[in-house]
Amino acid sequence: MAEPHAIYLKDYQPPRYQVEHTELRFDLAPEATRVQATLQITRAPGTASDAALVLAGDHLTLEHVAIDGQPLEPGEFEVTDRALTIHTVPERFRLDTEVVLAPASNTALEGLYQSNGMFCTQCEPEGFRRITFYPDRPDVMATFTTTVIGDQAATPILLANGNPVERGELPDGRHFVTWNDPHPKPAYLFALVAGNLEKIEDQFTTQGGREVTLQIWVEQQNLDKTAFAMTALKHSMRWDEERFGREYDLDLFMIVAVDDFNMGAMENKGLNIFNSSAVLANPDTTVDAMFQRIEGIVAHEYFHNWSGNRVTCRDWFQLALKEGFTVFRDQLFSSDMNSAPVKRIEDVALLRTAQFAEDSGPTAHPVRPDHFIEISNFYTLTVYEKGAEVVRMLCNLLGWETFRQGSDLYFERFDGQAVRVEDFVDCMAEVLNLDLTQFMRWYSQAGTPEISVDSAYDAERRTFMLTLSQHTPATPGQEEKAPLQIPVEMGLLDEQGVDMALVIDGQSLGSSTVLNLDESTKQFVFEDVPHAPVPSLLRGFSAPVKLKQTLSREQLSFLMRHDSDGFNRWDAGQQLALKELETLMAAYRRGDEMVLDEFFVETVRSLVETPASDKAVLAEMLTLPTEAFIAEQQTTVDIDAIHQARRFAIACLGDTLFEAFETLYTQEQSDAAYAPDFDQIAQRSLKNVALAYLCASGRDDAFAYARQQFEANANMTDVRAALTQLAHAGDTSIGDPAIRAFGERWAHDPLVMDQWFATQVSRPHEDALERVRFLMAHPAFSIKNPNRVRALIGTFVNQNRVNFHRRDGQGYRLLADVVIELNRLNPEIAARMVLPLTRFKRLDGTRRALMLEQLERIKAEPLSRNVYEVVDKALTSA
Ligand SMILES: [Zn+2]
Q1: For residue range 547-588, what is the model confidence (pLDDT) as tens digits?
Q2: Sheet architecture: strand order including 118-122
Q3: Which of 98, 124, 301, 489 is catalytic?
Q4: Which of 546, 775, 793, 813 is the most buried (most CB within 10 A)?
Q5: Is the peptide bond before 125 cis (omega within 30 degrees of 0)?
Q6: Distance from the CA of 287 to the center of ligand 1, in angstroms?
Q7: Ligand 1 center from residue 17 Cα (angstroms)
Q8: What is the pLDDT of residues 839-864, one digit of tens each?
Q9: CA atoms lying within 13 Å on the CB side of residue 798
């Protein structure tokens, strides 16, 4: 097999032919769906008249091809597994093609496929070329008319983008619906759904007075899980009008839930297709965190109607243009709807663990990559989450009002166009007359910048000198890094914990300011500082960087209690806990007894015993840094020491502060009817954190609380929290009855069974890996369904680090087995699943060798381009 080759951003060429209008006719059948396409094509100005027409087509069976009604002769065109080339075409013409597809055997879940008998599509980024021959690139935008023909009994509902314009019956029990989408769009936003579906419906009136019908389509048994998403949709529509001035532009907006789906959801114009796990929710089956996630995803996909659909990407290198901006928009939305500090804490936690790990591994890439083999490998945390951080920095730099002006200008100027990251940033630069040339490096430079801090207080001169230095470690293919423009928001605390007035060069800067670190090293001298302050740096996590600062335990504890910035209060607590865990890890490594420091225990006690002003934040503050976060701080990751130290600390806190946690647990009980609202979610999370500490003590009365909570069956959040504590108890006889009862109660509900899988395979017990293999044979598991794979394999790999990284290499072997099988079935998911095997750089020699062995084993297989690209990068960097 020839090695797949890379595509480069610098090689971009504008399309030689544009499609004005696309007419599609689908005659649906599981094994032989006929797709007729009629394209109105025009040669782009400046294109040579003898330029061939090349249309992408991925393993399509061509039955017919004609230009202006004239069928082509064999010598006039060429068909390969990847394209249809027509050697000479007129300047304007109509192209007709017909192909045959087999949706029932499409396990890649790209293009047109079947899920539980329902037909559906996924076209982003390059799935449309699996449906018909087409210039499948985002800078070709056309209006679409789509006719869907299907069997009336099997597919009573036939949906596509836009508005329905015609429907009717056909012979042999078949029927059709024709849809028209008047907004020109790239092919990746095309969607079709056909199946036996039912809907809930609602109405929304836009600011401009447009009456929009809202529909959520699901299988009949899921109708009672749609209300929450509908409310979230209406909130999103209103919010986007109020915050960004964006209105919806069709008479109909539809969401469809699909069980087999590679991503979370997809923003197809007027017809969003959702992974059922990202839309279906009710209190009996869904935990609080999922309610919030669903609200965020519904909003994200809806917001794309402007940031993505109306203004789209010129090419796939610009993916962060739509994703970074839209993730930033959904983060703002969630933070307006819920607890803003907790939303920030969650987003930063994800960034600092998973995205930073990506940045320091073999697949590190800039927010805007400059080359790829397979673009679907670049739907990454770097593009999405770091991309959102870059937009957030712009917003902080400009201030909200100006940022909004820049956003308005962007939408106005580029409506209906396919543009680049520069076009977005230029609008922001223009409204404030700023030079953002250096800022653009955030888009082109990979890796996580590190900031080191040096400070000195001069009592005589009453000055405080802060020296900040930046350094970005080399990443594959990028040895040298230029200094970035890094906004460092900060303040100085006085002895009472109050923000000091900040003065630099005689200029008063208020009590919190943003330092512009735009050189390798920069000094900031604060004047009129009466005594040595405690600096609070990187407030609100103002830039996606690693801050290397040495503060004493007393200073951290001081910041934790007094910092006026909520995020930094939490972060100081995390740093304090990290210090404590590092001490325990050192003891563990020496073979000494681990002893928890009194100072730390008392700090936690004061948190538990002081009435909380914000329960959601308190729950976060009481949660120790995760194993993944601790690992990110280490040069050589000591898997076992991290696990043992953290477990010990939790058990010790649970035991020492048992009465305090018991009081907290009892206080936070509530009889109120369940609602996934901010106050209740905060209360439940605090209560369940307390329960976790109680159970970590191993005491019988703690498990009695858990058992009681499990059996009370009040809502899934509480049931799941209790089940986790029971199932994770060292003595398996404590958890086994609950695991059995839960599995029997929910055997009919795949999304709840995913939670059942996840609870079991995240157990720290020694037989966890054997449990994974056992559950892979369970009737509720299927390797063909991405949700099942993520729940069972993904949870084990990412949340059971001590067992995944077993010293005998069995965890790596298990993952390699799964990747090899998925490579044949679903390359996109396979390429995602293989990533943990590429993070070997900072592991000990034994584990590194074991991982490499499995990567070599995978490499020996006939690989999809997706898996090839990831594995090849990893092995090259070894
Ligand atoms: Zn998106």
Answers
A1: 999 999 999 999 999 999 999 999 999 999 999 999 999 999
A2: 111-115, 118-122, 192-195, 157-160
A3: 301
A4: 793
A5: yes
A6: 23
A7: 28
A8: 999 999 999 999 999 999 999 999 99
A9: 17
